[in-house]
Amino acid sequence: MYAFSKAVNSMHSEDVKQLMKQASGKNLISFAGGMPNNDLFPVKQIDEIYNSLPEDVKKLCFQYGPTSGYPPLIRSLESYLKNKGLAVDDNKILITTGSLQAISIITQEFVNEGDIILTENPCFVGALTVFETFGAEIHSIPIDVNGINIEALKSKIESLDRKPKFLYVTPNYHNPAGIIYTPEKKRELLEVLSGTGIILVEDDAYSDLYFNGEEKSLTRAMKSYGVKDVEIIYTGSFSKILGPGFRLGYMLSSEEIFEKAETVKQALDACTSSFMQILANEFLAQNKLEPYLTFLRSEYLERKNMLQKYLKTYMPEEVTWNEPKGGFYVWLKLPPHIRSTDIFKESVAKGVVFVTGRTFDPASQKDDRLRLSFSNMPKDQIEKGVIILSKAIKKVLQNSKMQIS
Fold first, then answer.
1. From 152, 226, 341, 360, which residue has the greatest number of CB atoms within 10 Å?
2. What is the pLDDT of residues 81-107, one digit of tens each?
3. What whole-number distance in Å separates Cα of residue 360 and Cα of residue 49?
4. Is the entire prediction scored with pTM above 0.85?
């Protein structure tokens, strides 16, 4: 028996491992993977970018780079984030190996074992794994279609015997709930945190993937609101808008937080892949991102509409959901007396996988939901997948009614 550290005992790490397996499982119709479909990647554009690079830049692709990131990419990101209204001049960007590394760096920077972190419930499972790995005490606040429950957040902060280190939220096209915080909810949240000293970690991986251009303004980052007495660390990712295999993310923070984060980053991996940073920079600098995003929005809207149509056609009336305005996910609500883990057993036996609601509960208990991702689905499999899933739900519903009677 090995003397493993406490860090390997994350409740949610096994869920993440299973999720990655399910997402790439052969011969399965998978609603599990929160990732783009392979057929959507900009392979041709990236080929052209690499082939047109000067020889000296190609050589740089193979070399170590600065821990903080490839300087031209940082400059391109500054321009990109300024267009989103973020105060780049008053903050500093750290390039990370995926936004999950940014979350990990922030956690290492601020959290000692036993410290309190506030999260939403449900919450992105990757973040939960990080928080558990570093021994945080997690307290979660419920969310609804408009965002975090403000009264529950106030009550939680007042009830705690010590100050939480930060509140972690994903306000735009939430993973897994698919919701977007209303502007009113974002302002209320900042008012609650004002003067408390609780840092806000604003994770924003999906805001470019809105379905309706008229609703783009809803995706405005809280870090762009100019609130002076709430410290906000903003994290972003290329995983959903270029490709998860790039493993590229970033964090935007005050200089003091940036400097400590850079020290943590140095100890983790010295620097993020120069190869991927150079390719991503050229994609941004050559103005290829916005046309590509226009293409992605159209593709994901089509998939979302198909999924909505088939859910309405085949799902039993006891199952409800909110139609997402962007992102990747639909969050189904089940009747209170059945569990998504029971449905999963039925549906996987018939060749359809999804992610159970329990996976996203910080306490790993609440199991009356399930997450469907439409982003990775071949369009010709969506209807078949929904039919199989709805049959599995109906069977579990029938069994539960028989047991009750």
1. 360
2. 999 999 999 999 999 999 999 999 999
3. 38
4. yes
